[in-house]
Amino acid sequence: MDAIEVKDLSKSFEGLNAVDRVTFSVHKSEIFGFLGPNGAGKTTTVRMLTGVIKPDSGEARVMGRDIVRETQRVKEVLGVLPETANAYPDLTAWRNMMLIASLYGIPRREGERRAATLLKEFGIYERRSSKVKGFSKGMKQRLMLCMALVSDPEVLFLDEPTSGLDVQSARSIRQRIKELQEERKTVFLTSHNMQEVGELCDRVGIINKGKMVTVDSPENLRTRIGGSVAVEVRLDKAVDMSRLEFNAERVGGTYRIYTTEPHDVIRSIVGFATLNGLKILSLNVQSPSLEDVFVKLTGGSNGQ
Amino acid sequence: MGSKVWAIAKKDIQMYYFKGPVVIFGVLFPLFLFLAFYIGRNLPAAFLIPGLVAMTIFFTSTSVSPVIMPWETQMRTLERLISCPITVRTLIVGDILASFIFGACISAVPVAVGVALGVGVKSPVILALAVLLSAFCFSSLGLLFSAPPTSLVSNIMMLSTFVKFPVIFISGIFIPLENMPTWGVVVASLSPLTYFTDLARFSIQGYAYYPLYADFVALLIYSALFLLLAVKLHERALPKRF
Ligand SMILES: Nc1ncnc2c1ncn2[C@@H]1O[C@H](COP(=O)(O)OP(=O)(O)OP(=O)(O)O)[C@@H](O)[C@H]1O
Ligand SMILES: [Mg+2]
Fold this sequence. Notes:
The structure holds two protein chains of two kinds.
Chain A: E1 4-13, E2 16-26, E3 31-35, H1 42-49, E4 57-62, E5 65-66, H2 71-76, E6 78-81, H3 93-103, H4 108-121, H5 137-149, E7 155-159, H6 167-182, E8 186-190, H7 194-200, E9 203-208, E10 211-216, H8 218-224, E11 229-235, E12 248-251, E13 254-259, H9 262-275, E14 280-286, H10 290-297
Helix pairs in contact in A: 3-4, 3-5
Chain B: H1 2-17, H2 20-38, H3 45-61, H4 68-75, H5 78-82, H6 88-106, H7 108-116, H8 124-145, H9 153-169, H10 182-188, H11 192-205, H12 212-237
Helix pairs in contact in B: 1-6, 2-3, 3-6, 3-7, 3-11, 6-8, 6-12, 8-11, 8-12, 11-12
The complex binds adenosine-5'-triphosphate and magnesium ion.
């Protein structure tokens, strides 16, 4: 049995097919990345799977439990970090944690123990008695993550957990997501950060305009776009590269050339530089990034 | 389910009710409205106090309960809340419980005012039962107001005001039932507040228009009706809040 099984799930809003017969599954203790442009239907999918809204048609199971007929039992195994949700601003961090703990039916002592551990781990224990409205964005987000973890859930839905955070906060959250996998938890992660998804996820699903485009591992996805690589070169002087027989794209001081034959390209660049008395400052070969794949698969369009 | 209901109620009390303005408004508004009607009319305090108690319990029980849902929709706290394993019923009953506690506690203020003015309570048990049942009934009514899935607090305030004032004016607060023409009594019987006022008059002045059991049955029926309707409508409305 897979942790999440989704079949032909659909939802429309006033005639707009926000999610259109989406089918995929997420294995147990896998980190599954869910990518798509703005308005692709990611949050709508997450809301259906977490029992917040009902699908129009199709079905889905989380840990074998039907999301429509057994919504409460689904929610019991979930930890959720919604995209645009807030903790109660007029309650303290501690009260927010205890509220969620009681709503999961966790006995008080146990809830207090877990809340203390989590708040310490995320560096907000010292501020536990302050009202959340005084917290910075990063602190609020870390608190929301603590709230998602307090029930020790088997499956986590994290909708853009690191968006808008500074490098340290984002990194500590990513670190924690990796640890969750070691604890054999299943993570459903939505993000616009390709590097983050490439680094964390075992498999990635790409959705565009409500339709599932593909599901594959980041490695397989990278080799998808025709096996081409990018050769990047930096020279000591700005030159007219159009004299080369390759199509060079200029990014800042660097020239980038997409090719399936890096060997030929490098030879001509070196020849070109020698001939013109130019110094090569750096030269490297990049396999395509997940971002390239993403842009290609989603047609560079956004669904809005 | 009990502990989850209590967790919701506790959150409501800390978030919404433990605020100076809310409490003061809950006491002062009914008082001013009441005085506006009675000033200059030489009526005995024993007649005034039951009306003041009725007004207070009605206003306090329906003051905050209607705005919790639109508030939480706007503050975006609701999605986190209902991602937890709770039903809409738990949520609604929790909100009602908070409002009930607030309404029942604040209604002690006008009773105390009455005692200070020398108006004794002849049947404290009946009054206490009536207060508890009505606080529940009016709190449920308050939640009924917030059923439209909007995030605009002002819309819900407007809607609830539109309903609240007629409910007060047709009730027996300002004109005792026995002084009303038949059609007045018929109209008054539509207001749940009529039955509480009748019970309060019995407890304080010593006589009631309806038999006591009829007042209680009417309040029970209204409570059940409001509660069921509130749960049904909120179940339908909740997914539309996202
Ligand atoms: N409650 C709603 N009412 C009307 N339309 C909605 C509603 N929720 C979502 N939509 C629409 O459904 C589509 C998908 O939205 P969704 O929020 O799922 O996108 P997303 O992939 O999460 O985007 P983002 O990356 O910006 O978070 C959008 O066109 C959006 O406008
Ligand atoms: Mg989204």
